[in-house]
Design brief:
This protein has seven helices and ten strands. By secondary structure, it is of the alpha/beta class. The strands form two sheets. An eight-stranded mixed sheet has the order 2-1-3-4-10-9-8-6, with helices on both faces. It has a two-stranded antiparallel ribbon with strand order 5-7. Strand 1, helix 1 and strand 2 (27-32) form a beta-alpha-beta unit. Helix 2 (69-88) packs across helix 7 and helix 4 runs antiparallel to helix 5. The N and C termini lie far apart (40 Å).
Length: 256
């Protein structure tokens, strides 16, 4: 079994999610969209694979906004096409943070700004604790999705919708994949300033992440197991977006 892991930048890794997928027998094919040399200029070209011979897709987070086509328009449209095609073909897609927002957009939803930036370990309100436990989960986002037609929200907090399912696909707004090493890299590349600007201590965030690593790994593994067990039938039908991704994004930007 093969899992396509979409890494939007060099700082994001599949972490605990990738670890569990490997334990479950998946071979991870990692696709890096924006190389380190273009991190501050992410308008690169990227060739996304066809969904043939792919059994699962994981779209990770990113420091950009899905609807910022002036920055990432060269690759976000083909990625949305891939996510929509995979979902329509019955291939499970797990979207994480930016990846969840991209999945929602690919299925006919959109992205908007949060009322406040959310960073750190938080609990959420979940309707499906066996699928998405209440946490704590690590948050690092200033955007949120608007649910696509046919999706079912299963978790939320006062900032954003935190998880949805649509057929065999699932989007989560938090970071189940996060390891202490990944957080250290995020903090070293601008995250420390973001945290300090929000009145948070970057050192304390990293210390807690290290202290709670085993519990976070266990929660992430349980989430992956539950995601893989989503039923093929009896849930929201696969429905590709009816509008091409670039036009859909532009129209949604006019409305926001």
């Amino acid at each position: 079994m093969r899992a396509l892991i979409i890494k939007h930048d060099h700082l994001s890794t599949p972490g605990y999610v990738g670890e569990r997928l490997t334990q479950r027998g998946y071979v991870l094919d990692e696709l890096l969209v924006v190389p380190e040399s273009r991190f501050t200029d992410p308008g690169v070209g990227c060739t996304f694979p066809e969904v043939v011979d792919i059994d699962l897709v994981v779209a990770l987070g990113a420091p950009w906004s899905v609807d910022h086509t002036d920055l990432i328009g060269s690759w976000i449209a083909p990625e949305l096409t891939l996510l929509g095609s995979a979902h329509a073909g019955g291939i499970p897609v797990l979207g994480i943070c930016f990846g969840g927002q991209a999945l929602a957009t690919a299925l006919g939803g959109r992205v908007e700004r949060c009322p406040r930036f959310e960073l750190g370990w938080t609990n959420i309100h979940t309707d499906a604790p066996r699928l998405v436990p209440d946490g704590p989960w690590f948050q690092f986002h200033g955007d949120r999705w608007v649910l696509p037609p046919g999706a079912r929200e299963i978790a939320r907090n006062d900032v954003a919708s935190q998880a949805f399912v649509h057929g065999r696909s699932m989007g989560v707004q938090f970071h189940p994949e996060l390891t202490p090493e990944t957080l250290a890299a995020w903090l070293a590349h601008g995250g420390d300033a973001t945290a300090s600007g929000l009145g948070l201590d970057p050192g304390e965030l990293l210390a807690r992440t290290r202290e709670d690593a085993q519990a976070a790994r266990k929660r992430a593994h349980l989430l992956v197991d539950a995601f893989l067990a989503l039923p093929c039938s009896g849930s929201s039908p696969a429905r590709p977006a009816t509008t091409s991704p670039p036009a859909a994004i532009e129209r949604r930007r006019e409305l926001t």
